[in-house]
Write a structure and sequence with these properties.
two-stranded antiparallel sheet, about 290 residues, single chain, disordered N terminus, two-stranded antiparallel ribbon
Length: about 290
């Protein structure tokens, strides 16, 4: 009895020791997990801050009165249902002024050739992105939008207007037209028709349109004629690029900070995969152009 009684506390002490060791391992593992989580969060934040550094300003030559290469000027044609005081078809509207400025400027051809070769961005698309950011640098100097951000969006949306075999003419117009799937609540959220099918050919559901994939309602608000042909056309890279720059540089926007840049991209498309695609392309283009 004495031996049995004496051995019992020994076994209990060993059990308590094992329990304490297990508890210690659990605590250490928990702290390690928390540490990894914080490191991941810090790394993600640092990545955002690094990515948003925009490419150098584009070299602009003297303004010209001629439209974009290959464009033929006609009477200004606004988007269906457009607000004349806002979009590119409105005489004297902010969009019309931006479009006219973009159509008039010329980017240094040596810069275009060198940057297109270094980045792989097609020259017409690069010219459209560069003109758009040059115009917004004057109209909204506090926005700090870089051409590489627009190029990142163009790459993610339509491979700069070349998705599924489409091609881009010298005036920036894509052929055939780029029209996204019906926003009927299936794969994507439901958005009932807002343009009577005028832009997307669908009078029941809206579809994203053009190389930069605008919703018809957004194009109505921000679409401009930046090619100088008199038509605010979402299927034209010059028009779409200035419209996208205008959208991203909403009053008060400043894209220098990582969080602000991310919010601007998410306003265009909120998906994490989209943000990553634009961030990756924009970063690569800026690096290649240096």
């Amino acid at each position: 009895m004495t031996d049995a009684a004496g051995s019992s506390p020994g076994r209990g002490g060993a059990g308590r020791l094992v329990a304490l060791l297990i508890a210690a391992v659990v605590v250490v593992t928990a702290f390690a997990a928390v540490g990894v989580a914080w490191i991941s969060r810090l790394d993600a934040t640092a990545t955002r801050d690094r990515v948003v550094a925009q490419a150098d300003a584009v070299p602009v030559l003297a303004a010209s009165a001629s439209p974009a290469p290959g464009a033929t000027r006609t009477d200004a044609t606004p988007a269906p249902g457009a607000d004349p005081g806002r979009d590119g078809g409105g005489e004297g509207g902010a969009g019309a002024r931006l479009g006219a400025a973009a159509a008039a400027i010329r980017i240094d051809p040596a810069w275009l050739a060198g940057t297109a070769a270094a980045t792989g961005v097609p020259p017409v698309a690069l010219d459209a992105y560069a003109r758009a950011t040059a115009v917004l640098a004057t109209a909204e100097p506090g926005c700090h939008l870089g051409w590489n951000t627009l190029a990142g969006i163009g790459r993610a949306e339509s491979a700069h207007g070349t998705i599924d075999g489409t091609s881009v003419a010298a005036d920036g117009t894509v052929t055939p037209r780029i029209v996204g799937p019906a926003l009927d609540g299936g794969v994507y959220g439901a958005i009932a028709d807002t343009d009577g099918g005028a832009w997307d050919g669908d009078d029941r559901w809206d579809r994203a349109i053009g190389p930069l994939q605008f919703l018809p309602s957004t194009w109505r608000a921000d679409g401009v004629d930046a090619s100088g042909d008199g038509v605010a056309d979402p299927q034209n890279l010059y028009d779409a690029s200035v419209a996208a720059a205008r959208y991203l540089c909403a009053p008060g926007a400043d894209l220098r900070g990582g969080a602000a840049w991310e919010r601007a991209i998410r306003s265009y498309n909120p998906a994490d995969s989209y943000l990553d695609a634009v961030r990756g392309a924009a970063t690569a283009y800026a690096a290649a152009a240096r």
